[in-house]
Amino acid sequence: MKETVIYNATVIPVNGDMDVFPGGSVHIKGNTIQEVSPVRLEREGAEYVDAQGMVVMPGFVNAHTHLPMVLLRGYADDLSLREWLNDHIFPAEARWMTPENVAVASRFALVEMIKSGTTCFNDMYFFEEVIAREAKRAGVRCVVGESVIDFPTPSFRTADEGIARTESILREWKGDSLVTPSVCAHSPYTCSRDTLLKAKQLAETYAATLQIHLSETVAEVDDLLARAGKRPAEWLYSLGLLDSRTVCAHGVWLDAKEVGLIGLCGSSVAHCPKSNLKLASGVADVATYLGRGLNVALGTDGAASNNALDMVEEMRFAALLAKVRTHDPAALNARQALRMATLNGAWALGLGDVTGSLEPGKRADLLLVHLDASNTLPVYDPYSAIVYAMNSKNIRSVMIDGRWVMRDRQLLTIDKDEATASLLRLSSQVRSAPR
Ligand SMILES: [Zn+2]
Fold it and tell me: The pTM is what?
């Protein structure tokens, strides 16, 4: 079995003690981390990778996204969520999101994600089996779920068909080493009580993660209060949808009682700061959520509302916004922000024993980050450099499940030129079609 020793590195394992090991090393055997050491390790027969000037850290976990929406990056900007979705995104998806086009867009999204250090992502969309196949081929870990919703979509006509598609994906990908199938209900404002309950039942049957957009805008809260007399998290709680396998994307407008309910049930929040800013949805008070014991992860949302899939940017926005939200510069420090972008994401997705930190027994999902660079030096504290100074171009190499998918900025599992040419062909069709 192939063995690798990465040495001469500043190792940031994102473990319980938030250690930093200058001059440390990581020993990998097959797809698994054997040892993380503060000193140089010698292992006979191993490939040695000199990481002088680099940080070795866990890859980013993007806890909420929609890969194929890269096709619609910049398609409709500067609009409210409702207008953006109903007048632009939903019609464009109905027209353009065929299985073939979902494959093209997803492949291109994976280029951006690998280059910006994402080693695991959580996707909710249509034709998720296509996205799963593209991720598997690119060697990227993921959690995938068909976005069940109460109106016709590119991949199904009714919510029941959406549930059936979800179940077939759950069966097809069960036990895969990289792809974890899940259940997704789009939101409380697009799914009836009946649909939400069916989604929950399916998640229970397959012991799968249940993902849902929750409390993204004030309008969503007001509508649900008028319709059901409950706020979004209260509504899910009353239906039995909240438990430790539930991931609530956004959670911008949770009140104190809702935060209490989510904490009580052990559910996670996937904070998406840039998307919330761009759609003017609001700024989630994640420092308070964390203070009350919630597991808060980080997601980019889709590239049509971000407009990037770059977790480095997302992490920095999260840290900075928490400070201005609370008028407290100590809110969400660099260590907490990095933890949200890695380990908290893994826990949210039910993969806390698999990825999100560099610890023996976990899969080798890691980044080599060049901090000996003009935009990061001097480095007094590597956490500070990673959260407040680095950008995705500092990420030189990416390993997922023990396999290099990028080395020295060269992608090894995706033909970037082909992926780009296909995306450009498709986007020129979108551009020239009447809206
Ligand atoms: Zn979303």
Answer: 0.98
